[in-house]
Every structure is written in C-alpha cells, then in structure tokens.
Design brief:
The complex is a heterodimer of chains A (133) and B (127).
Chain A (H helix, E strand, L loop, with lengths): L8 E9 L1 H11 L9 H6 L9 H16 L4 E8 L11 E13 L2 E10 L2 E2 L1 E9 L2
Antiparallel strand pairs in A: 1-3, 2-6, 3-4, 4-5, 4-6
Chain B lengths: L9 E9 L2 H11 L13 H11 L10 E10 L8 E14 L2 E12 L2 E12 L2
Antiparallel strand pairs in B: 1-3, 2-5, 3-4, 4-5
The chains are: A alpha+beta (133), B alpha+beta (127).
C-alpha cells in the first residue's frame, strides 16, 4: 500500500448486479423494501423497474476499496445516491468502479471513487479514507 | 411529517445486537468478500437501518416515503463476530426542499462505552 501516490488512478473493476443479488442483499442487510424485488410494486410507485438498493451499490464500492487496503483498513466511506440502478429481470447489470488517490498523509490515503452503469454515474461524491500502515 | 421539536435529540437504544459470524458471512458473500475476520465496511447499515426505524418510529417521519439520499460511515474499528452493539440515533437536522423533507440521522454503534462505528444517513421523504 505504500505505493499509493497522489493522483494515482486505480484500475476499473466490474461487478454484476442481478435480481438474485438484490434478494441476497435484502436478506443480508434486512432491507426488504419491495422496490428492490417486486417489479409490479416498483412500477406502481413510478419506477421504471426494480432498482438496486443504493446501499448494495455502496457495498460493492466498499468491496473495491477493501481490495485495495483490506476490510479492516477502511476508516471513512461516503456516497450520494444520485441515480437509481435499474435491474431488469434476467439481466446482469455491470456496475463499473474505479478510484483516484486524492491525498496521502500520515498513513492515510483518500480516494475519490467513480461508480457507473452504462457510463452514467450512479454514486456522487463517493469517497473513502483508508489506512495503509 | 417529522416533529421538528425532535431535531437535536438522541434516541438511545436499549436492545443489544449480537454480531454473528453467519451475518458477517452473508453480507460478505453478497459482495464477494472472502475475508470473514472483520465485517465489510458498510455492514453497520444492516444494524443501524432497522434500529433507527424502530428508535424513530414515533418521530412523525414517514418511513414508507423515504428515499436514501446519501450515506457516510466513520469506522473507528471494524465490527467483528461476537460484538454486542447498542445503537443510538440522533436527528441532526431536518429541512424542507421543494416539498420534500430532508432529514439527517446519525446512528452510533457502541460496544459498552466504546464507539465502534458512526453512520450518517440523509433521508429524503418524498412529498
């Protein structure tokens, strides 16, 4: 981790999101809101289709950060949910995550994280602080 | 609508949540994490979301209309299996924008007197 430098671009990784993953996340997190599982319900409240939990998208970004530094090294992590990730039946939606190092100081590195689906950003102001001591 | 007099108030939880290895494994499996020694960075939400809903059930906040606006975690140490965590939730701010209520809630997870994780959620209650 001592190789992290300001301005360094960290490579993109792709995370498939599908309906089965939404069910698994609902069960693991306790968030059983039907807009994440039930197409009919999602459409009844004006959504185009079932959408992923914003916190699932953030959890996958957390996996990206953990892969850089280890789960135990993540000190701060934040994101805005700017655009819903629509998950049609039978499809794998590719969430693509990359990051850039914005600061390295006192054993802590700050990352700006980019998360996109079809090249459209789905998280805003996504940032993490990781320890690399 | 949220009772504005509650802004600034902390609702302390009474219930202890025991973090099990199974719950960490289930959360880790969703994101493909194979290190099960500590919980993944956003695991705390699996406790604070439900706990804050319970703690704030009489606040006037309409949870059925809530959209998650943003989320922040400050992790003082990773959560591990065996942790016995108590959640307290504080309504930090509330305002109305374009007819939507914007409510910011901080939930702290303590193990005894030790603060383990703080989470901030901005909730948008759709008009």
């Amino acid at each position: 981790m001592s190789t992290l430098e300001i301005g360094q671009e960290l490579g993109a990784k792709s995370y498939p999101i599908n309906r089965a993953l939404l069910v698994a996340y609902a069960n693991a997190s306790g968030d059983q809101n039907p807009i994440h599982q039930n197409e009919e319900f999602a459409k009844s409240v004006g959504l185009p289709d079932v959408i992923a939990h914003g916190m699932l998208t953030m959890a996958l970004a957390g996996k990206y950060v953990s892969d850089i530094a280890g789960c135990a090294a993540v000190k701060e992590f934040s994101a805005r949910f700017t655009k819903p990730v629509v998950v049609p039946a039978g499809a794998d939606v590719a969430l693509v995550i990359s990051a850039k190092v914005t600061s390295v100081e006192d054993g802590l590195a700050k990352l700006d994280i980019t998360a996109t689906v079809d090249e459209v950003k789905v998280l805003g102001m996504a940032k993490a602080t990781i320890s690399f001591l | 609508m949220l009772n504005g007099e509650l802004v600034g108030r902390t609702f302390p939880g009474a219930e202890t949540t025991l973090v099990t290895q199974e719950s960490i494994a289930a959360f880790a499996a969703v994101v493909g994490e194979t290190n099960l020694d500590v919980a993944p960075p956003t695991y705390a939400i699996s406790i604070t979301l439900n706990q804050s809903q319970t703690l704030l059930q009489d606040s006037g906040l309409d949870w059925t209309r809530v959209v998650h606006g943003d989320q922040r975690f400050e992790i003082f140490r990773p959560i591990v299996a065996g942790d016995k965590l108590i959640c307290s939730s504080t309504i930090e701010s509330a305002r109305v924008m374009a007819g939507n209520e914007i409510v910011s809630i901080r939930s702290d997870l303590h193990s005894g007197s030790e603060l383990v994780v703080s989470t901030w959620s901005t909730l948008v209650v759709r008009a």
